[in-house]
Specification:
Rossmann fold, 8-stranded mixed sheet, two-stranded antiparallel ribbon, 8 helices, 26% helix, globular
Length: 407
Amino acid sequence: MLYTMLTSSWLLYLAATIAAGTPVGDQNPLRGQNDATTPGHISTGLFASLERLSRLVDITYCVGTTGITQPFSCASRCKEFPTLELVTTWNTGVLMSDSCGYIAVDHGTTSMLSGNDGGIADTKKQGAIVVAFRGTYSITNTIIDLSTIPQEYVPYPSPDQGGSKPPKEPEHTCKNCTVHMGFLASWNIARAVVLPALKPLLEQYPSYPIYLVGHSLGGAVAALAALELKVVSGRDNIVVTTFGEPRVGNEGFVKYLDSVFDLGGKGAQNEAQTYRRVTHVDDPVPLLPLSEWGYRSHAGELFITKSSLPPEPSDIRVCVGDEDSKCIAGSVGEPLRTVGQALAKEQGQDIAMWTEGLWDIPSRFKLWQLFFAHRDYFWRLGLCVPGGDPIDWDRDKYPNFTTSDEL
């Protein structure tokens, strides 16, 4: 059934792209893995923060499966976070607009927002509120089947929709904004749990920063949640970190998000930014839905240039603007070398004469990477078993970059 779902979705996706006028065989040259020699890689401090957050988002996959219980216990990585206290979880099932996640309070974290010089900007011991959004097991259908139906985005939902009153004079306005209907539906489901649960926490811990994290669909939902929390509440201490986040909305929405989080548009990014969109060189999801359908990527990207696990700080590039050609945007036309071509090259045979252009597939068509690169963010994410995915069991932790009390 899963094979049929992926096959039908891939064919639908391929047909839609051809109809939109995207040439399948006309691709850009393959980029080298180690061609990023200019400055722009992250510090070990920021790396430690991202690695820890990747484990926190991996725990979301216990919601809807084996579960998370208080104080903060689950079948996966919960024991690695002894200072966390579970507040609540939510689960709406495995559907196209499914919404799952948890809220927890960390009573002993250290802020790990790093400066440009690689130093720690703030080492004061403090707590934090963590809101984590799980990815969906039906990400292919979620993106493809609904992406032709963009929906108007309203930053300030009306009170009868469970929203808050908009600011009298909003600093940022969202003009001609549309977002993916499935992503917005998932946030609308989650917000009925998230906002009421957050209200007493914000009153009880007013100085605690809010860390919103999400993988896959959860990254898109985290983006919508963060915008509402930041604009309506006016809080400045909101930090968003997403892994494999798909494109959420159109150009108007991207300009709005960049403005709200001061991502600088085409200007240089820095490690102190409060929105970190982590992407992977082989992951097709950050390139979806299609730009031909009006979707765009926003700024704040941190690009993992290494295909295999585990990455190191030197493997992560700080990207510039919404679509840096040296980051995920540059892999739109990356061709795929087939197994046959790889074997032939290993045997010293040249088969390029009769295979050239036949199997060149851009990254955004590599839907089989939903099982691999889309999950390869510091760890193999997405399986709630002791120690995480079995592929991680024989891997060492990150002793040089990680401590138990760092966000």
